[in-house]
Design goal:
This is Thioesterase II family protein. By secondary structure, the chain is an alpha/beta fold. It has a single domain, classed as Alpha/Beta hydrolase fold, catalytic domain (Rossmann fold, 3-Layer(aba) Sandwich), CATH 3.40.50.1820. The chain is built from eight helices and seven strands, in the order E-E-H-E-H-E-H-E-H-H-H-E-H-E-H. The chain has a seven-stranded mixed β-sheet, with helices on both faces.
Amino acid sequence: MAATAARTGAWIRRFHPAPEAATRLVCFPHAGGSATYYFPVSKSLAPEVDVLAVQYPGRQDRRAEPCVEDLRTLADLVVEQLDGWLDRPVALFGHSMGATLAFEVATRLERSGNAPAALFASGRRAPSRHRDEAVHLLDDDALIADVRRLSGTDSQILEDDEVLRMVLPSIRSDYTAAETYRYRPVPALTCPVVALTGDRDPQVTLDEAGAWAGHTCGGFDLKVFDGGHFFLNSHAQQVTADLRDRLTGR
């Protein structure tokens, strides 16, 4: 099915369709995040880049669906949904948990003969760098405290008990998926990898971010920004400008 005619369905959000763009960028949200996090990215890059954002089950309009607590299973499901969007070069961008998921999707696309044009891994250590983490096993208060520590969810949502109880299951599920992930050695990607990180990110050291270089034979670049885990929020213009330059070859 031609991508211009493909239905976005439940999984894919295409906020600013750019059918004439030479390249697509598929964006993967962080733990507890949703596709709308990438609305500003889509708006900024259109019409030069056709941006797709993945909507995971268990949030917003998919809240009634069961969450997926295994990143490999989630990657398999996403790849199925991308089948109709591979008629032009596709790059992948993921933040935090989304970066690991984007990596797993990239490996699957390569195996199927649809190697991505690039992988942008933001706010996440390389898959081969493991940390023992078990926040997903803590009680609700401790989980919320960790989300607040990373500034990953709107504080107004966290302070609204009714809304919080609606989104907390998806946050815990994503934490489970991220923290139980274990890297399984696979051939290095052939596409270039760009790692982006904040210089004060408690979740990622510069060494852990630089280790993404070992997952590609297609070129590597490390971009370090002032900030913590969600450095993207304060450097959005700079990040999107760099994405535009890299994806359009300017």
